[in-house]
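Exam revision sheet. Question 4 asks you to relate a sequence to its structure. Input first:
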Amino acid sequence: MGAGIAQSLATAGVNVQLVDVSSAQLDEARRVVVEGRYGWERAVARNKISADDAAGARDRLLFTTDLAEAVDGASMVLEAVPEVLSTKLRLFRQLGSSTHPDVVLASNTSGFPIVALAEVADRPQRVIGWHWASPAQIRPFAEIVRTDQTATDTVDAVVELATRCGKNPVVVTENPLVWGFVANRIFVAAVHEAHRVVEEGLATREQVDQLVRDAYGWPAGPFGVVAGATEGWGDERKGVV
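Answer key, structure tokens:
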């Protein structure tokens, strides 16, 4: 997902340093942003972007395995490491000590407490959540998660950047005692209730999905959404996963 985020930012005119733990990971990221299903080559072929704009975006995206090199001179660091809290805490502790205090530190977590990341980074006013949906290149979803200590100019900077990327930023306030922020709390509740309906023998999975599609205009029902999250959806589907 980090590759898709980096591609979105570079396409929007932002200079990006994409850092990963190995050259092999970076090679895969290059393949994704250039040749992948939502990469620049296909976007040019479908007239979603001009060849010149794609070339310019590629020039703005650099790759490195050196974290210190990646964050040097950055105004914002956007984390997209695996969804493991200990890994994120370790990274934010490192970022807090290796970047200027004014640098914004944003996390693409699906629901871990932003306040905990801010605490270990020791800069609560400059830490924020920027929750993306996959595939990052095409989903308009941008859940911007503030704590009660996040500075207004930090929120404004992320909202402005999300808008430049063609997203629809929505600023929410986190409850650090509950996982999932807003979008995932609602989605998980819907999926949980759908499973209860099936377990009670009231309807089949297929019937639940059909009812929800017909009643609420979802592109897929709750069971179809979960399947779509693993298979990858086409451009025409806009559901949040």
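Marking note for examiners. The longest strand covers residues 141-146.
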